[in-house]
Each structure stands twice: as structure tokens, then as C-alpha cells.
Amino acid sequence: MRNIIVVNDGSSDNTALVAKSKGVKVVDNKINMGKGAAIKTGLDSTDADIILLLDADLIGLTPNHILDLLNPVLNNEADMSVGIFSSGRLATDLAQFIAPNLSGQRAIRRYVLESMDKMDITKYGVEVALTKHAKKCSIK
């Protein structure tokens, strides 16, 4: 079963309205609590074994990108995959070139997220925390 959950982390743009109009489940954090807390909110809203994290401001995302992220995890080749995309905003492309492991686009087995201590307080450093956690725990 596939669930799409949009976590609205105190945002005032139209993302939540658009998602709701498409029949997507929206979970609201009334105030901005940071990306780590938003991921924790989403995780607490599903019992899925594989979690796909996608930033809402992606440009040019295709179904093939999503499959490229999910397939290594679905096929038990990895417990976490990290998406490295290009042809987006210049700042994002530059950041991905300099530090590719900081990508917010990931497919992750639930146990990886659940085994992280204090993920909800990592704010916007969650990608660094996830990468360090995976390395420390030898996560595939």
C-alpha cells in the first residue's frame, strides 16, 4: 500500500491546499519546527516500512527519479538511498556538487529513522545527521 503524506511545517504557501485538493493526506505542524521534526511528524503518521523523503520545492522531478531512489531499497540492495539531481536551481545544483550527501531526497527503511536519537531536534541539519548515523551504524 502506498501512502502520500505531506507535512506542512508551519508553511504559509499553498502546498497544503494543493495536496489536499489532490486527495493527499496533509499533516500540519502549526509552527515551523524544522525538517527533522517534520520528518518525525510524517513518520508518526504512517506505518510504512519504506519512507520516501522529497523536498516540496523540487524542480523537474520525474517518476523515473522516484523509481531510481526507491529501487535500491525495494530490492534490498540498500537501506537508504540518496538522490543526486541536477538541472534544478543553480544554488541547489552547486550544493549537490559540493556535498552530495546533503540531499534531502532519500528512500529510507523505517528502522533507520526510528533508530536515530533526537531526529526531531536536528532542524535543517537532518541530512548531515542521517548520513553520520548511517555511517556510524554501518547502514547499507
| Shape label | globular
User: Largest sheet, order of strands side by side?
Assistant: 3-5-4
The secondary structure category is: alpha+beta
CATH architecture: Alpha-Beta Complex
CATH class: Alpha Beta
Report the mean per-residue pLDDT as an integer. Answer: 85
Order of helices and strands: EHEHEHEHEHH
Counted up, domains total 1
Unreliable runs, pLDDT <50, ≥5 residues?
Answer: none
N/C terminus separation: 24 Å
Count every helix, treating DSSP H or I runs of 4 or more residues as helices.
Answer: 6
Name the beta content range: 15-25%
Beta-strand segment tally = 5
Q: Major beta sheet, specifics?
A: 3 strands, antiparallel
User: Radius of gyration, rounded?
Assistant: 15 Å
CATH superfamily: Spore Coat Polysaccharide Biosynthesis Protein SpsA, Chain A
Task: Report the helical percentage.
Answer: 25-40%
Q: What is the CATH topology?
A: Spore Coat Polysaccharide Biosynthesis Protein SpsA, Chain A
Features:
140 residues; 15% strand; two-stranded parallel ribbon; alpha+beta; 6 helices; Spore Coat Polysaccharide Biosynthesis Protein SpsA, Chain A
Question: What can you see in these coordinates?
Answer:
The structure is a single chain. The chain is an alpha+beta fold. It is 39% helix and 15% strand. It has helices spanning 15-21, 35-44, 63-74, 90-98, 110-114, 126-136; strands at residues 5-9, 25-29, 50-53, 80-82, 106-109. A three-stranded antiparallel sheet has the order 3-5-4. A two-stranded parallel ribbon has the order 1-2. The longest helix has 12 residues, at 63-74.
